[in-house]
## 1
Amino acid sequence: MNIQNLMAQAQKMQKEITKKKEEIDNSIFEGTSEWVKVEMNGKKEIEKVSIIFDGTIESDDKEMLEDMIKIAINDAVKKVDQEVESKMGAYGSSFNGLF
């Protein structure tokens, strides 16, 4: 294989990686818990937090609600990571940390 073919393949792979990363970045991932729904983009930035608990929240429920928010955020982060692995895993772990 000559160097020009190798460079052409590398450029093609770079374009594919960039395209897939943009797709992920522009996607919205929803994380949920019992009382909370979180929407996060592929850059792991929170887009929206919704309280889905019907009724009043007592002061005793404050700690539980905080836990529910944490669970929903972690659920959304997990989904982003799964999508990155699904779309970018074919390129191997050599790109780990870049995304």
## 2
Amino acid sequence: MNEHTRATLQATFDASNQGRLHFGEVVGRLMEVQVESYHVDYRAGRATCYLPDGATLDLGFDRSRPEDIPDAFDAAAVRAAILGAQQGRVMYPEFKRLSQRAGCTGYTVWIAGRHVTYFGRKGETHTEPFPD
């Protein structure tokens, strides 16, 4: 991975975590450096970006506490958080809180596949296509 790609990923990750970029902006920046997908693990406090050549980059953030993510996965509440983000009412710091409260342990953004899969503690999933 070249330094430009690494710097772009870090800057994008930082800006998103600070609530300065919307999801669409994040995806656009990652597409510019050919990221195929990325996985966010709230419990491990890690996001991993995957490039087509097999290169990866792990970026850390504050881990969630066990009490932040309930056992029950509420797909409707996850969907509501997604809708808020799509409408620009919810930035990433709030999205993290809302999705965790809905029982989401993490998610994978499939940029090449144009959808996101959200995961619960017991293997539950919700898949959300990118808006057109």
## 3
Amino acid sequence: MSTYDVAIIGSGPGGYVAAIRCAQLGMKTAIIEKYNTLGGTCLNVGCIPSKALLDSSHHYEDAIKHFEEHGIEIPGEVKINFKKMIERKASVVEQTTKGIDFLMNKNKIDVFTGMGSFKDATHIEIKGEKTQTIEAKNTIIATGSKPSSLPFIKVDKERVITSTEALSLSEIPKHMIVIGGGVIGLELGQVYRRLGAEVSVVEYMDRIIPTMDGAQSKELMKVMKKQGVKFFLSHKVSAVDRKGTKVTVKATDKKGEEVSFEGDYCLVSVGRRAYTDGLNLDKAGVKANERGQIAVNDHLQTNVSNIYAIGDVIRGAMLAHKAEEEGVMAAEILAGQKPHIDYNLIPGVVYTWPEVASVGKTEEQLKEAGVSFKSGQFPMRALGRSRASGDTDGFVKILSDAGTDEILGVHMVGARVADLISEAVTAMEFRASAEDLARMSHAHPTYAEAVKEAALAATENRPLHI
């Protein structure tokens, strides 16, 4: 029987990064993955393939809507080769997962393919082509999450689908009904809207992306409406029925009246749930709640001292980069170090176009907590760079403490804000004030100038370009 200092169950961003860091710190490391490719949901059926389709569909939309205004004329009709688009997405996924294989080999990490489950707190059974057992002094559970559904919805994976199936359709839908106005529903809804599908988003809450700042919700919905996406807020879905190629979704609107939607596909994107099925946690003595989430302390340690858990299986936002940070933290704790994660500074991003990005507290959270704050906002349309590229939608909003001027939250909508948000994370990590950002030189012309201008607006309400 092989013995390891640490075994990681699950090879998503949290798991494979934890394995690399453990190996870097001199531990004999094993990683266990039930699927044939490493990378978990993110690399195989999540972050990476969805961004590939978002980029491909964005190119197509630019070609049919925006090239002409740039003086680019394309003779004949611009056509979609959807099969090739899906093949390119698969190629990107394959390249990325092979990169993880390379990293495992480079760091001398043993990879086991099969379903891992606990026999006890130090032994893991792996059922693959053959069944084998390994011994691990320590284990990190990193098994991620699966798409959630509603109890009355039968996801048939053909017409009533989750994000996994939406990434590999064989045709462009005529009318896709999206249940859920969160990140996944909006990103995939925008992909298919660009490609010509009618898209209707049915959301239970009174706004889309409800966990982000209210100003972002309003701005993104305004822009996506212009793009042709239809929104039905404060609608409680009550039934989803399929007959042949027709899917009917019934819901109750805010007036209490029943409404129905008919389409050829229904994307169920109502969140994700922790995936701990089949781990036999009870045999190791690890406790999980009724939703499958594993309880951990501030050191990511479960109630069993040698077993840790990270990523989507524990509390907090289900984000790949959050899982990565926790993977590094768990590895360093095992090595006797004292790492720390500030969960308030984990950024959130929606990869629609325009992009949406946030870090820190929202205006609603500050008001609820009774914190006195200043707000500065600057529109992207006032930037020379935005006008040059034609990306004039959106804004940067900075919230700072009314007394100390420390930055408490930064919320952005616009071109490339998924990258811009890192400036805000850096500033907040070092507890910068809005004035600190306002006095830093930002290259011209860039989208980042909106950050400086919003900081000027938050400091003394003195932006330079509006």
